[in-house]
Amino acid sequence: MKKTLLLSIIAIIPFLVFSQISTSKDFSYTTSNPYKVIDSQTKIYLSYKSDIYMIKKVKKIIIIQKFNSETLEEIYRKEAVGLPENFTFENVAIINNKLYFFYSLWDKENQLEQLFSREIDFEIGDFVGEAKFLFKVNGKVTDAIPSSGVNFTYTYDKFNFNFSYDSTKIMVQYRKKPEIKKDALNYDVIGFYVFDNNLEQLWNKEVKMPYTEKKMDNIDYAIDAEGNPYILSIVYDDNSSKMKKNKEGEANYHVELLRVNSTSDDIDKASVDVGNNFINKIYLYESPKNYMVCAGLYNNGSAKIGFFNSYVDNDANTDGIFIFKARKEGEIFDLAFYEIPVEVLNQYEKLSTQKKNDKKDKKGKADFANLELHNMIIGADGSIVLVGEQLYSVTTTTVTSSPQGGTSTHSKTTYYANDMLVTKIDSSGKMAWMRKLPKKQLSAKGFNSISFKYINANDAHYVVFLDNLKNMNLSLNKRPAQHVDGKGGFLTAYKVDDTNGEVAKLSLFDIKNVNGTEVYQFSPHRIFSISPTEFAVEVYKKKKEDVLIKITLGSE
Q1: Does the model's pTM come out above 0.70?
Q2: Cβ contacts of residue 188 below 8 Å, gap of 6+?
């Protein structure tokens, strides 16, 4: 990894060393009165005007809650009435100032998959009018893969929902289930239904992919303000269906951006030359500047090659970030690669690790291990902010012998969520800043209670997570102590200034003493934005009661 960004790094280090632990002047928090818990694995949090809405699924029951975001008072909780018995929960979204609940129904007799919407009245929490039939699909569709789109809300089962940057177009996408599994001659059929923001259908089409299922992988989908769908794909150049190096040490695949035409059966294809780099994460978005943006992570082939867009991939080491743009006509432009400098990799590391990184760097083999790309934020000026995190798991297996001579095997998996990387590329395509943020988290239960939540507020980027109490007053140039899931912790946030990348650390509250109350079942997935200066988190306080905690950020 070449030291091509040394001048940028010189600017980084002083910010990280001299940023202060923020005091109570930078934020305040309030708690709601306790309210009866709803035991649910599916919890969705939305805010609209001065209210908070929660949609919770308990088996086949949907419960809607409304809270006042100022007082945190629960206004109502309603069980949704009028849903068919065998519905499948698909999505909840606020579209054009209306709250919609989406569900699917499988008609076994006629072999039809159907999608419906119901509008929920904000004031009373009941459905308005009759269910709206959106479309039907002949035959089964495969399980949906959550989309990464900028205005994406939620998807759960069979259909992906994508929104244009200005939220005027909605695309519902699905993949037809192949009649023969793992057939080398299968061509994927992808369906698209495009709606306006009144849920009126504009057009629909099922498209046969230009390559066989074995030959290509569709990685991401997006829609633009004109209602044109885009597919980001990798296409293998050999007979393999797995990323690898060929005999010459080059990548055995290339990246293609496909655009589906609403008025013809043609698919516009644009190839993207990534050289000998291996792409291990890649996402597609619409820009407010009338072009599409693709961004992701890459390695130069010196590390093991990871899997595209897997949630956690222990082999996906990263050398840097890459970005390209595409005009609506298909032209690829502003393709750029941004290496992660060794100076960034060495921050908060032990001296022995720094020396190893320096040796690897001389051979072009220094990289950020296990980096996963979580968030991509496109500014109104076309600038891009990427937020990643070091995620991995370790499984250990022990074999014990019994007195009778037999053996038993026991496996244990430990999950780690460590340092974060936040990078801004300005509207001209230059790197504005890159910041490594120190964090160490461990869990024996999975990633649900560790990792972080991204919040955009006050012209700054906040990453909110649960930290070890020992790190409460730790300066930013010190390696943090490890937080262990289930052992309490301090809710903490890093604030990164959008303009200059300056970092500040906010220690918000101890979860064992939130206004005198100990709280439990913390998860970053239960954190949500309320306003440009406020966010909230729902937690459990025992005695079958939940509590809402609202954090108000200072304007400085």
Answers
A1: yes
A2: 175, 176, 178, 208, 209, 213, 216, 218
